[in-house]
Amino acid sequence: MSEPNQKIILTADRPTGRLHLGHYVGSLKRRVELQNSGEFDQINIMIADDQALTDNADNPGKIRDNIINVVLDYLSVGIDPTKSNICVQSTLPALHALTFYYMNLVTTARLARNPTVKAEIQLRGFEDEGLPVGFFAYPVSQTADITAFDATVVPVGEDQLPMIEQAREIVERFNRIYGETLVLPTALIPENDAQRRLPGVDGKAKMSKSLGNCIYLSDSAKTIKNQINRKMFTDPQHLRIEDPGHLEGNVVFTYLDAFCTDEHFAEFLPEYKNLDELKDHYTRGGLGDGTCKKFLYNVLNSTLEPIRQEREKWANDIDSVYDILKAGNEKAREITGNTLARVQKSMRIDYFADRSIVKEWETLLKNAEK
Ligand code: ATP
Ligand code: MG
User: Fold this and answer.
1) Segment 18-34, tens digit of pLDDT
2) 239: region left, alpha or beta (phi > 0 left; psi from -120 to 50 alpha)
């Protein structure tokens, strides 16, 4: 096992597209803060290409192409490869072996109860088309990812809570059967409601690549403006400026909840000190949706501007990005390989770790003769 009391992070993203604002507030921003806090002994960030293949088996090219997009997004938000290990899931064979062993520790009934997987099955039409076993079992493979790195902390959005719950159950079961071997992980989700599960620009429950309702971290200022002005609704009853407005289900205000700070007010809307004052005015009446949308545009664009610039820098140096990934993979192979060896030892399937089984077999056969 890793040294006792080590603090280790593992998080991952599926390379099914570029990363978006939901990833940013749900997980990425936190990862960068934790990385820079210096409190962690090891930070691992994984591109989950195997998991992405579970519902994209017929389109491996899409996954291959998006690996570079996700790495560029990581580097542009401030993931620092000297502090965080960036790696690719499919290059780590230990994860496949662990998944295979863990599958014996969970029932199909338990997997079928996972609310996130249930929703995703529905979204992908797998109920009618047939459900790939790999997709159904992806929470098990996620458990392999987390435990292979001995992760203590997994910073994720709210949709991932059932996965961490599942991982914890498998860890407990494994340790009960085979002896204390695996580290029990904890989920770290944002405190802010809007950040935990950022809705899509269309107001749907979750911004998600699969739903096509995203603002991507690399989107241009113009695209952001269009998304806000054309896709985001406010309060349908707020017809005239002087009418009182409602905040519930008002996407513009949900985004402000997730993104704006008092500094943004000082810079872009100094008539108000903070979001509470803006909300007060809106609900009282007399504040137009246009002003709120313009402010949101400034908040989002000023958040994304430095990210965009950083992305461009890295995009012009793909050779270095390749080297970063390659080095990250080598470290990750070593870490996950050590865990696999430990797991196989606990399960007593480490036949060729040394020759001790020769003696065991000899004794066994001798005793059988008697
Ligand atoms: P896909 O549609 O391919 O599943 P996705 O947009 O759901 O993609 P993932 O790669 O599944 O993104 O998620 C990566 C991480 O980002 C997870 O920790 C997840 O909780 C977080 N995340 C994704 N979308 C949101 C969101 N809208 N709000 C908060 N966190 C999110
Ligand atoms: Mg997802």
Assistant:
1) 999 999 999 999 999 99
2) alpha
